[in-house]
C-alpha cells in the first residue's frame, strides 16, 4: 500500500511545471508590455480620438467657428463626400499611385534582371551604387530635383536648349509638374523593388531555365512563364505596401510644387494629392479639423478595401492557410 502511494506522488511535478509555464508567460508579457503600451499610446488612442473628432464641429483657431462645441454626427462625412474637389483629388491620387507602382515594378525588375545576369561582375558594387537614391533622405532628393527641373537655371532645360529642343517650365505647367513628381518618385523608389526582385530571382533554380531552353522557350517566354509567376510571392507585398505609400505621399511633392500649379481658382492644384489637399483643408484657411478627421477615416477605409480586394483577387495569402 505504501509503495502504491509512493508511485502516485508525481502530481506535484505537473503543478510545478504549470507554475513554471505561468512564470514564463508573465515574463514574456512583462517584456512585451512596454511595446504594447507604446502602440496603444502612439497608434490606437489617436485613431479613436480621430474617429471621435470626425463626429464633432471642432475647428481652429477659433476652435468652434460653427457655434458651441458639439457632436454633429456624420455631418463632416456628408460635407466631405459632397465636395467635387475630394473626388478630383482622389482620382488624381489613384492615377499617380497606379502609374508610380507600375514604373517602380518595371524599372526595378529590369535592373534586377541585369544585375542577376551571370555576365555581370562586381555585383556588390553595382548594388551599392544603385541603392543610393533610396538611401538619400527624401527632402534632399526633392530639393535637388527641384533645382534640376528649374525652368531657367535647371540643368535639364540647359541641356534641352543646347540640343535645340523646347525647354518647358516643368513645375509651372500642370502636366509637366505631374510628370516631374512621378520621375522623382521613381528615382527614389525603384531601388527598393530592385533589391526585393533581385532576391527573388536568386532564389529561382537555374535548372528550370535550362530545361525551358532545351524545350525551345525564348527569353520572353521564360520571363512570362517562369520568372514572373515565381516572383509573385515577393513582388505582391512590395506592390501593396508601395501602393499604400503613394496615398501617403506628402513631403516630396510639397517641397517641389506645394500641390501646384493651380490652374483654376478654387480648384485643387495639378499635383495636389490626397495628403496635401487634407493639409490645406486642416492647416490652411478655415482649419476644419473635424472635416480632415473624417477625411482620414474615409481614406483609411478606401485603402483597407483596396488591400483586401487585391489580396483576394491575387490569392496573395493563399499559401498561409493551406
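-> sequence recovered:
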Amino acid at each position: 500500500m505504501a509503495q502504491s502511494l509512493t508511485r502516485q506522488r508525481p502530481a506535484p511535478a505537473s503543478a510545478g511545471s504549470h507554475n513554471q509555464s505561468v512564470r514564463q508567460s508573465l515574463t514574456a508579457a512583462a517584456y512585451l508590455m512596454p511595446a504594447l503600451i507604446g502602440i496603444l499610446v502612439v497608434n490606437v488612442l489617436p485613431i479613436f480620438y480621430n474617429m471621435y473628432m470626425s463626429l464633432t464641429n471642432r475647428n481652429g483657431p477659433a476652435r468652434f467657428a460653427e457655434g458651441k462645441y458639439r457632436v454633429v454626427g456624420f455631418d463632416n462625412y456628408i460635407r466631405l463626400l459632397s465636395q467635387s474637389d475630394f473626388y478630383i483629388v482622389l482620382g488624381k491620387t489613384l492615377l499617380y499611385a497606379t502609374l508610380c507602382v507600375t514604373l517602380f515594378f518595371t524599372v526595378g525588375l529590369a535592373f534586377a534582371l541585369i544585375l542577376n545576369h551571370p555576365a555581370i561582375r562586381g555585383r556588390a558594387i553595382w548594388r551599392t551604387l544603385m541603392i543610393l537614391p533610396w538611401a538619400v533622405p527624401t527632402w534632399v532628393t526633392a530639393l535637388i530635383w527641384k533645382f534640376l527641373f528649374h525652368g531657367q537655371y535647371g540643368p535639364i532645360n540647359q541641356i534641352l536648349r543646347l540640343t535645340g529642343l523646347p525647354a518647358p517650365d516643368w513645375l509651372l505647367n500642370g502636366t509637366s509638374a505631374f510628370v516631374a513628381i512621378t520621375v522623382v518618385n521613381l528615382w527614389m523608389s525603384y531601388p527598393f523593388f530592385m533589391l526585393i526582385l533581385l532576391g527573388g530571382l536568386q532564389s529561382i533554380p537555374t535548372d528550370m531555365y535550362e530545361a525551358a531552353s532545351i524545350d525551345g522557350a525564348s527569353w520572353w517566354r521564360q520571363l512570362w512563364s517562369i520568372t514572373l509567376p515565381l516572383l509573385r510571392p515577393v513582388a505582391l507585398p512590395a506592390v501593396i505596401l508601395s501602393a499604400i505609400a503613394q496615398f501617403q505621399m506628402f513631403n516630396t511633392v510639397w517641397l517641389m510644387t506645394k500641390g501646384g500649379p493651380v490652374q483654376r481658382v478654387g480648384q485643387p492644384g495639378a499635383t495636389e494629392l490626397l495628403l496635401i489637399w487634407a493639409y490645406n483643408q486642416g492647416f490652411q484657411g478655415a482649419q476644419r479639423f473635424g472635416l480632415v478627421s473624417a477625411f482620414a477615416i474615409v481614406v483609411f477605409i478606401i485603402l483597407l478595401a483596396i488591400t483586401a480586394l487585391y489580396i483576394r483577387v491575387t490569392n496573395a495569402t493563399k499559401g498561409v492557410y493551406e
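The domain at 75-321 is CATH 1.10.3720.10 (MetI-like fold).
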